[in-house]
Amino acid sequence: MTAMANDGTVERMLKMRFIVCMGALLPGIGCYFCIAYTYIFQFDVIMNFTQSDQCPGVHSWLYRRAFRNAAPKSLAYRRVIYFYTRTMWSELVGLVAVSVLDIKCNFVIHAIAYSIWIISFNFNMLFNTILHHFGGIRETSQKYEVIWRIKVFMFVTGLILSLSTAISYPLFLAYCLPQAYLAFSVAEYLLVGYNSFFYCLSYWEFPRCRLTLGVFDAPKKVRCATVPSTIVKLPLA
Q1: What is the pLDDT of residues 121-151, one digit of tens each?
Q2: Which of 43, 107, 197, 225 has its CA 20 to 30 A from that of 125?
Q3: Could you tell me if 109 and 97 are in contact, meaning their C-beta atoms sit under 8 angstroms apart?
Q4: Known InterPro entries for this protein (predicted)?
Q5: How far apart are CA 125 and CA 90, in angstroms?
Q6: How far apart are CA 131 and CA 201, in angstroms?
């Protein structure tokens, strides 16, 4: 990481790997740290945790922690990029909402936010894998081929985990089965790790790339010369 200052301009060059570590790994590590902290220092809360609103009297030792935390130019390729940029934003909004609005605050909004996050994440894995394949980078080296295979594996297994939550939690609400809630919580914990590790694959995709962040002075306004209202014709020689 280097910094430069010249004529009121401040520039900072950041390695792509540094940004990947900060943006992809830290949220997942922070989430698992909160879970570990709860099990170590608040174990009495976990042992007495119950879904009092949906299933009173049903206890679960798995506490749901709120997560506060040169390409082709074909039309199909451009459309994938278009939708990819939209689902990236919807995943961000859903993740923030599901972290801030927990089930005690508003269950319906929390469930909607979770659905937005998990659906957007699965679409992002799909779009990322498609672009990786059709962008041509897969054939450039064996490393990118391995990364693509990892992405395909994570998308397939992540989709199965996501669909399992759509079955296990309604099953818990309908019959108050602790096993269903356990299955839902385990799948959700795994999906948090999936989310961090999938985006962390960029660490190996961009080994020598840098991003330049800069603060520049606003361009000065240039006043145009006043145009005279009358034009005097000069006689030709």
Answers
A1: 999 999 999 999 888 888 888 999 999 999 9
A2: 107
A3: yes
A4: CWH43_N (IPR019402), PGAP2 (IPR039545)
A5: 13
A6: 14
Interatomic CA distance for residues 9 and 163, integer angstroms: 50
Q: In the numeric block, which tokens belong to residue 129? A: 């894998």
Q: Is 205 exposed, middle or buried (0-12, 13-18, 19+ CB in 10 A)?
A: middle
Residue 38 clears pLDDT 50, i.e. is over it = yes
The mean pLDDT value for 30-38 works out to 71
The residue length of the chain stands at 237
Q: Is 3 helix (H, G, I), strand (E, B) or coil?
A: strand
Per DSSP, what are the bridge partners of residue 14? 211
Handedness of CA 169, 175, 178, 180 (dihedral sign): negative
To the nearest 10°, the Cα dihedral for 26, 28, 195, 102? -120
pLDDT at 166 over 50: yes
Structure confidence at residue 51 (pLDDT):
52
Measured CA to CA, the distance from residue 133 to residue 152 in angstroms comes to 10
Q: Could you tell me whether strands 210-215 and 9-15 are parallel, antiparallel, or unpaired per DSSP bridges?
A: antiparallel
User: Which residue has better confidence, 25 or 218?
Assistant: 25
Percent of the chain past pLDDT 70, that is, above it, reads: 60
Tell me the two tokens of residue 16: 């792509």
Q: Are 57 and 64 in contact (CB under 8 A)?
A: no
Residue type, 182: L
User: How many other C-beta atoms are found inside a 10 Å radius of the C-beta of residue 58?
Assistant: 15
Could you tell me the two tokens for 28?
């997942």
Query: Position 52: which residue type?
Result: S
Rounded to whole angstroms, the Cα distance separating 217 from 7 reads 9
CB atoms within 10 A of CB 161: 18
